[in-house]
Amino acid sequence: AEKTKFALKVQDKEDGVRTDAVSAIKREITVIQQMNHPNVIDLVNTYEDDLHIYMLTSLVRGGELWNVIHREDEDGEWHSGMDENQAKFYALNVADTLAYMHRQNFIFRDLKPENILIDTEGYPTIVDFGFAKHVTEDELTYTFCGTPNYLAPEIVMNRGHAAGADHWALGVLIYEMVAGENPFFYEGMDQMALFQAVVQEKFYPLPDTKSPEVADLVTKILEKDPKERLGKLRGGEKDILTHAWFSDLDLPGLRRKTVKAPYIPPADKLNG
């Protein structure tokens, strides 16, 4: 019989960055333990010694979504982006997983393609809950955290943020999957200019070859005002999950993993 393989995440109790690394790690452990979802990493066990905390998780072997979006060919040339059918498969799985987290009153706060791993069936798995936070229904939180390219305007301006910040990052992710680049960032741009663009400027238009449905979804999610952003309107997160771009996907089937993924990681690309 094939042996089950696991991944071990080792974190230093004194990491030189966080003053309270131990409580931050234990908070992350608590969050993952409360998540019971097919697209969230499984925490099998935790251990600690004097210097480290160890998290034993399921092994997700297909690599990062980042490497599916940005690929290097044999000649060293890079190709970015993917067709819309593949992008919407990942996007709806991720949107549904975020909605699940938000129903548990958690916000994730670090959605990016590096934190989404692809399993052997081709489904996305969300990992790294280091920035996740428990918030009550109408509470806003003010910690400046996340990854610059995916930060919502309200985080940049420190106006307080909630679940809408995750939706913004989802909008950036959808744009990046479909267009192959970030909606606000370009190579060589400094962080202040990026933040100014996020807060004040409209994103670069999607190429004309993309469907009007994806353009509509991205426009409604990359809305600067979190109160007007899709996901926060009267229909709540259902507005995202039932958007026309996703109309040809079977959400109950995705939840049961009976829908065949558009990309299955080849055996030679599997980790472990």
From TrEMBL:
Alphabetically ordered keywords of this record: ATP-binding, Kinase, Nucleotide-binding, Serine/threonine-protein kinase, Transferase
Gene3D superfamilies referenced in this protein's UniProt entry, alphabetically: Phosphorylase Kinase, domain 1, Transferase(Phosphotransferase) domain 1
Coiled-coil boundaries: none
GO molecular function: ATP binding; cAMP-dependent protein kinase activity
Tagged with keyword Acetylation: no
GO cellular component terms given for this protein: cAMP-dependent protein kinase complex
Pfam families in the record: Pkinase (PF00069)
Annotated Protein kinase domain residues: 1-246
InterPro entries attached to this UniProt entry: Kinase-like_dom_sf, Prot_kinase_dom
Stated name of the protein: Protein kinase domain-containing protein
Organism: Craspedostauros australis
